[in-house]
Write a structure and sequence with these properties.
The chain is α+β, with helices and mostly antiparallel strands and about 550 residues long. It has 16 helices and 14 strands. The protein has helices spanning about 10-20, 40-45, 85-90, 165-190, 215-230, 235-250, 255-270, 275-280, 285-295, 315-330, 380-405, 435-455, 455-470, 475-490, 495-505, 510-520, and strands at about 70, 75-80, 125-130, 135-140, 150-155, 195-200, 205-210, 300-310, 335, 355-360, 365-375, 410-415, 420-430, 530-535. The strands form three sheets. Strands 3, 4, 5, 6, 7, 8 and 9 form a seven-stranded mixed β-sheet that branches. A five-stranded mixed β-sheet has the order 10-14-11-13-12. Strands 1-2 form a two-stranded antiparallel ribbon. Strand 12 (about 410-415) and strand 13 (about 420-430) form a beta hairpin. The longest helix has 27 residues, at about 165-190. It is globular, with a radius of gyration of 28 Å.
């Protein structure tokens, strides 16, 4: 009754999978409705959960010397042995554990699925309805999906969250420990159709809650109480710190194309802490440091909040007041100065061609990402770049992947970050990035001829395909909420972007696209700004181990 709409392709694929589990007449409802209640089946399953049927798996480095067998596919060392009879007998006679019991009543289960009264003034986009010294509330009541669901988004912007690598580590550890702390009661909320997400960003902490609106305030209150009274669990801190350290160290084992995308962002971002910089500060990442950091994180804040869905304006204001007052009363939070609200920026490339080289010693494949910076986002440039990217996608893949067979991974598309945009091409290959660079440039040179020879009908079909894609209505409340929230966080506030940019798109001609290509992409252009990131394999048989630059 209240299920969100899905994309037809995904819906059909899901139903096809259900054919393995349900009779054809129950495929649509089998995953949701229980037609029979058979407690004896539960009893039968429970009766099988005995120590004699147990299989225990233990993974740890300290057992390496005891593992005498080798797994045939990956060569992993292992050992299998029978559980000791004494151990099994102690399990059989251990008695009942009071902690193993049925869960408490789920307080998040909704009972009211009514739509709230409609506002007199139906807004067509989010509007600021509340503002105080800590932040502001954006609100829009849903009049499209008409479901008993609401999306709540809260950004807590703090200037210390990403001020240096050490503080970036502290913010990450806080968010991981806090989510770990929430797991126990959030599980009940998820079972009842409520979801939440919490993440650390360069700006601070973001919190999102979505699902049935009736019990959202209950969940928000519990999260806020935990947030403002949070105490570090020392045992969990050590475990999560070790996991974090392992993740940073294992970055070197990521795929070359992931490295290319990452290093491209490192070069272009005005402020970003490299994984090696984060790793170098882990020796001072302690429980004591984190406990001292948390009050500083919330001492000065800017709150950005969006409430969109089955909610009244008064309910949204009460929600925002609760969050704002909770920070003011419990954390003594104060507002940020205007100078502390500066936006993140992108590096402007000034040379016609810039090169960043790095190595990967794990994988045989190398990779290249070429990025052509096309300037600041604005409606006409946005549409010219999107249209060029769409036209380029198929011939780029056909030439570099199908015909030249440069590598299994060939991608072309747009890159947008911090209001700056451009066209990028990624190729992962066993060949050297210098050779890949030359082949991509050869393709880029030939793209001009393809654009010039393109018929008016083909050009029009590309325009209409892009227009249809941009004007496709969101099928879920959460998707539309994501668009609104993106505009608010970016501070563009262009809530009718799709409609207005499609109007611009329809005015574009093939000559406009050719002019855009000639200015920003063509090699002969005096204002072209190219950044190439070469990830060179130094692994055995890798391109960095002696492969010559040959066709």
């Amino acid at each position: 009754r209240f299920k969100d709409k899905e994309r037809p392709q995904g819906y059909v694929c899901g139903l096809a999978g259900c054919l393995h589990s349900y009779p054809i007449q129950e495929v649509l409802s089998g995953g949701y409705l229980l037609s029979e209640w058979k407690p004896e089946l539960i009893t039968d399953v429970l009766s099988l959960l005995t120590p004699d049927r147990a299989r225990v798996a233990v993974c740890a480095q300290k057992f390496a010397d005891r593992c005498t067998s080798k797994e045939k596919w990956y060569g992993t060392s292992y050992l299998t042995e029978k559980l000791e009879q004494e151990k099994l007998e102690s399990w059989r006679t251990s008695g009942e554990n009071p902690k193993l019991r049925l869960p408490d009543k789920n307080e998040f289960i909704p009972t009211n699925f009514d739509l709230v009264p409609r506002d007199d003034c139906s807004l067509s986009h989010p509007t600021i309805v509340k503002e105080d010294n800590l932040g502001r509330l954006w609100f829009m009541q849903d009049n499209e999906f008409l479901l008993p669901k609401t999306c709540i988004n809260i950004e807590m912007r703090s200037p210390v969250a990403y001020s240096d690598p050490h503080h970036a580590n502290l913010t990450y550890m806080f968010s991981m420990l806090f989510k770990d702390e929430l797991n126990e009661f959030v599980y009940g909320a998820e079972l009842a159709g409520l979801g939440y997400s919490l993440a650390n960003t360069k700006s601070g902490i973001t919190l999102a809650i979505k699902g049935y609106n009736e019990k959202q305030m209950v969940l928000l209150q519990k999260i806020m109480e935990k947030l403002t009274e949070f105490k570090v669990n020392k045992k969990r801190f050590e475990i999560l710190r070790e996991t974090y350290m392992r993740g940073l160290k294992n970055f070197g084992a990521d795929q070359p194309h992931q490295h290319a995308v990452y290093y491209n962002s490192v070069v272009l971002s005005e402020k970003i802490w490299h994984k090696e910089e984060l790793l170098s500060c882990l020796d001072v990442l302690t429980v004591e440091e984190l406990e001292a950091f948390i009050p500083r994180l919330f001492s000065n804040l800017k709150i950005e909040c969006l409430v969109y869905g089955n909610c009244t304006i008064d309910e949204a204001k009460n929600l925002y007041d609760y969050v704002s007052n909770k920070f003011k009363d419990d954390c003594k939070s104060r507002s940020l100065l205007a100078s502390q609200l500066s936006k993140e920026r992108e590096i402007q490339l000034t040379d016609s061609c810039s090169l960043y080289k790095t190595t990967n010693s794990i994988h045989k494949a190398s990779c290249i990402e070429i990025y052509y910076q096309c300037g600041i986002q604005e409606p006409r440039s946005n549409m010219l770049l999107e249209l060029l990217a769409q036209i380029n996608q198929e011939p780029c893949y056909h030439q570099l992947r199908t015909k030249e067979q440069l590598g299994y991974i060939v991608f072309s598309g747009m890159r947008r970050s911090n209001c700056v945009q451009g066209l990028r091409i990624i190729v992962q290959s066993d060949k050297h990035p210098e050779y890949l660079d030359s082949r991509i440039e050869e393709y880029i040179t030939g793209l001009k001829e393809k654009l010039q020879e393109m018929s008016d009908e083909e050009f029009s079909s590309h325009k209409e395909a892009l227009a249809s894609k941009r004007l496709e209505k969101p099928k879920k409340l959460s998707v539309k909420n994501g668009k609104f929230w993106s505009e608010i966080l970016s501070e563009h506030l262009h809530f009718f972007r799709d409609q207005s940019e499609v109007e611009t798109l329809r005015t574009l001609t093939k000559e406009d696209v050719l002019e855009f290509y000639s200015k920003h992409i063509e090699g002969a252009s005096p204002v072209r700004r190219k950044l190439a990131c070469h990830v060179i394999s130094t692994a055995p048989d890798g391109a960095g181990n002696g492969e010559q630059l040959i066709a």
